[in-house]
Design a protein that fits this description.
Structural class: mainly alpha
Number of helices: 13
Radius of gyration: 18 Å
GO molecular function: opioid growth factor receptor activity
Distance between the termini: 21 Å
GO cellular component, one term: membrane
Pfam family, one: OGFr_N
Organism: Marasmius oreades
InterPro entries: OGF_rcpt, OGFr
Mean pLDDT: 96
Largest sheet: 2 strands, antiparallel
Strand order of the largest sheet: 1-2
Length: about 250
């Protein structure tokens, strides 16, 4: 697999040069539904309600993603704030906030033509509008950067098991159906997305399955393999090659 990009390596290392400014609370307040994001001037609950299936708004507005998925890096929206360690602690401890993060993930999955089938395993399926949404994802490469941010954010908030569900769903679409198989998506997936998992064993397992798919040959990562892998990880606590009947 390609070398890990610098921003992803810093994420994997836990941002060793990062600081925690306890005076900065914008992300916490936004997810508490107490602050409006900028420049869209919406509270989180309003954004979830008003922008669901509003695909043009989600495609052509670029400032909201830093608010929906805060990470410990500066983004392109200078009216947003990098995520602080104390915010992570407070947000993870608040069930209402965690549920809102899950809603944000569901919002973007729908935008990408997907839906979350199981919060426990992270399993994803196609949405009813997947054909048009997949075409948009292939065509609009700025979404590749958004997905990297989404995966990093989920990891920060204890939802990293969703990352494998997303990655392996895309891998299944590429391997079995030749969908989402554009070069730009494969490059983003192999270099960025697949490395946005801090669990070393899980990241390495996904990398190995991806290598098998990329190598061609007879191996096909099927939907059945995808579902079995996630279900057995849920029951056994880890991925293993026994998860896949090849």
């Amino acid at each position: 697999m390609p070398l890990i990009p610098r921003d992803v390596q810093e994420f994997l290392n836990g941002y060793p040069d990062g600081t925690d400014d306890r005076t900065l609370t914008a992300n916490l307040e936004f997810y508490m539904n107490e602050r409006r994001c900028r420049p869209d001037y919406l509270r989180i609950d309003e954004l979830h309600d008003q922008w669901w299936e509003n695909y043009d708004v989600l495609e052509y507005n670029h400032g909201f993603i830093q608010w929906l998925f805060p990470i410990r890096e500066h983004g392109m929206n200078f009216q947003s704030q990098p995520l602080q360690l104390h915010e992570i602690e407070s947000m993870k401890a608040n069930p209402a906030v965690v549920n809102r993060i899950k809603k944000s993930y569901a919002l973007m999955l729908d935008f990408y033509g997907m839906k979350l089938v199981s919060e426990e395993t992270g399993c994803i399926s196609r949405s009813t509008t997947f054909k048009a949404r997949y075409e948009n994802l292939v065509r609009s490469s700025h979404n590749n950067l958004r997905i990297s941010r989404i995966l990093k954010c989920l990891s920060e908030f204890g939802l990293e098991h969703f990352n494998a569900g997303f990655l392996l769903h895309v891998l299944n679409e590429q391997s079995e159906h030749r969908m989402l198989d554009a070069g730009a998506i494969r490059n983003s997936m192999d270099r960025w997305w697949a490395n946005c998992i801090r669990d070393d064993a899980e990241r390495n397992w996904i990398a190995e399955v991806t290598r098998k798919v990329r190598a061609g040959g007879q191996f096909v990562f099927t939907r059945e393999m995808y579902e079995q892998a996630l279900e057995r990880r849920q029951s056994e606590g880890k991925f293993s090659w026994s998860n896949i009947k090849s």
